[in-house]
Write a structure and sequence with these properties.
This protein is an alpha/beta fold and 436 residues long. The chain contains 17 helices and 14 strands.
Length: 436
């Protein structure tokens, strides 16, 4: 099949490359000349493990193409995917759908013959109706169907999530569109991947409901962690004890500094705005949004307290900047709240992240970016683990001890054992665990 993907951001590029690897002919379209130029040279504008090799392979085998011109890509396509950004709109928190609607308008100009227009971007309930109306206004006799097909990709594991998904959700009542989508995802049938067909609005809501539920789990265990600290319990054992219950499950029950990234912050906010618009508020998600914002700010206070209540003139080594490992994504990362608060309190920040330092440098100032973890801790008064990259899980702690000027370690990801850290002479603080 011939597929056009409009937008070469995270979702568009991963989806395009994976569809090409399924054997379809895919053309990815973007209006940014520098991005297309880089992609044509084999340079991947985002960090996602394995994506560079997957793109290179399918470009080499002439199944994956990149272009600035939408006309030919759309005209020749059986399915056109809308995969542009839907950031939170300034001022009110609603999803900004201007990019989605602009693409719909452009598709109307170029589509030829029966075309399935697929919304891959995360969009509020009813967006598909508006996309259909935009196209229908320009092409009243156009032969097309608008489909919702939300993505469920985890940054750092996106290729596996696309190729071995828990499920594929397709929102359409059009039988021809259903058949085309079945054919598009046919390579997944060997894995017996469930494909759930719903109406369009149900599909749109599934995406938001899924992300909101995961955000609730994260925020729940973070508040339990605070209670554990107050009563002397261990949040990791609590997580294990409740996660073994099949009704709850162990995933997303890891206490930390709060959720961030490209999805959860904007999607929880957009869901609450939609719910309020329909006079059906979701108070649990309202609370999650508020608590998560407060938690990220509270982590700076936790660090300052661990350093004796005063960080003025002190140097803090911060390991990890991205919101999670295996990505360079800094969007709504806890670091964006923690670092400015520490700087305002008078601290100097020495930071290292394997992939996110370039992005961080565009978003924060007055940080000493270091060449590695040991360079960061050299002569620092404290070490803070903020992102649980694998290379931070087995640091040479004797070397860390010799390089640090102070002895404070604040582990916001619970990577190390409190008793072991105490034996090694560290003043160690973690999240939701009793001090050794």
């Amino acid at each position: 099949m011939k597929v056009a993907v409009i937008g070469t951001g995270y979702v568009g590029l991963v989806s395009g490359a994976c569809f090409a690897d399924f054997g379809h002919t895919v053309t990815c379209v973007d209006k940014d000349p520098s991005k297309i130029e880089r992609l044509e040279k084999g340079e991947i504008p985002i960090f996602e493990p394995g994506l560079d090799d997957l793109v290179a392979k399918n470009v080499r085998e002439e199944r994956l193409f990149f272009t600035l011109e939408a006309e030919e890509a759309v005209k020749n396509a059986d399915a056109v995917f809308i995969a542009v950004g839907t950031p939170s709109r300034r001022g009110d928190g609603h999803a900004d759908l201007s990019y989605v609607y602009a693409v719909a308008d452009e598709i109307a100009d170029y589509m030829d013959g029966f075309t399935v227009v697929v919304t891959k971007s995360t969009v509020p309930v009813g967006t598909g109706d508006e996309v259909e109306a935009i196209i229908r206004k320009k092409r009243p006799d156009g032969d097309f169907a608008v489909v919702s097909n939300p993505e469920f990709l985890r940054e750092g594991a996106a290729i596996k999530d696309f190729k071995v998904p828990d499920r594929v959700v397709v929102g359409t009542d059009d039988e021809r569109a259903q058949e085309l989508m079945r054919e598009l995802y046919r390579p997944l049938f060997i894995n017996e991947t469930p494909i759930l067909f719903t109406n369009r609005r149900t599909s749109e809501l599934i995406k938001y409901a899924a992300n909101a539920f995961l955000a609730v789990k994260i925020t729940f265990i973070n508040e339990i962690a605070d209670l554990c600290e107050a009563v002397g319990a261990d949040v990791q054992q609590v997580s294990k004890g409740i996660g073994l219950d099949g009704r709850i499950g162990k995933k997303f029950l890891h206490a930390g500094p709060g959720y961030g990234g490209s999805c959860f912050p904007k999607d929880t906010l957009a869901l609450t705005k939609t719910a309020n618009d329909y006079n059906s508020p979701i108070k649990i998600v309202d609370a999650v949004v508020e608590v998560n914002a407060e938690r990220k700010k509270a982590m700076a206070t936790k660090i300052i307290k661990a350093m004796g209540g005063d960080v003025k003139g002190k140097s803090i080594a911060l390991l990890g900047l991205a919101f999670k490992p295996n990505t360079d994504d800094m969007r709504d990362a806890p670091a964006l709240d923690i670092i400015p608060a520490l700087q305002e309190a008078g601290a100097t920040i020495r930071a290292f992240d394997p992939e996110a330092m370039h992005e961080a440098s565009n978003m924060m100032t007055d940080i000493v970016f270091c060449d590695g973890a040991y360079h960061a801790v050299e002569n620092a008064d404290a070490m803070v683990i903020l992102t649980e990259w694998d290379q931070f899980r087995a640091l040479d702690l004797d070397r860390v001890k010799s390089l640090l000027k102070g002895d404070v370690v604040v582990d916001l990801r619970n990577v190390y054992d409190p008793a072991d850290m105490k034996r090694r002479g560290f003043s160690y603080d973690s999240v939701g665990r009793p001090q050794a």
